[in-house]
Amino acid sequence: MKTGRLLFIHAAALCAGLAAGAADSALVLRYDAPAPEKGWSSHALPLGNGRLGCMVFGDPFRERVQFNVDSLWTGDENPSGDYNTMGAYQNFGELRIELDGPAPDRTEVVAASDHKAYYATEEVGSSADGDTNTKWCVEPRGKPVAWEARLTKAAAVPSYTLTSTPEKRPDRDPKSWTLAGSDDGSSWTVLDRRENEPAFAERGAAKTFAVAAPRPFRRHRLTFSANQGGSHLQLAEIGLAGVALAAGAAPAQANYRRALDLAAGLHTLTFTAGGVTYTRETFASQPGQVIVTRLTVDRPGALSGTIRLAGAHRETTLADAGDLAFEGGFPNGLAYAARLRALAGGGAVQIANGACRFERCDALTVLLAAATSYAPDAARHWTGAAPAPLVRDQLGRAAATPYPALKQAHLADVAAFMGRVSLDLGATAAAQRDQPTDARLASYAKGAADPELEALLFQYGRYLLQGCSRPGTLPANLQGLWNDSNNPPWHSDYHSNINIQMNYWPAEPANLADCHTAFLDLIRSQLPVWRQATAAEKEFQTAKGPAKGWAVRTSHNIHGGLGWKWDKTANAWYCQHLWEHYAFGGDKAYLKETAYPIMKEVCEFWLDQLKAMPDGRLVVPACWSPEHGPDEDGVSYSQEIVWDLFNNTVAAANALGAEPAFRDAVAAARDRLVTPKIGKWGQ
Question: Which of 549, 527, 546, 526 shows the shortest CA–CA distance to 537?
Answer without folding.
Answer: 546
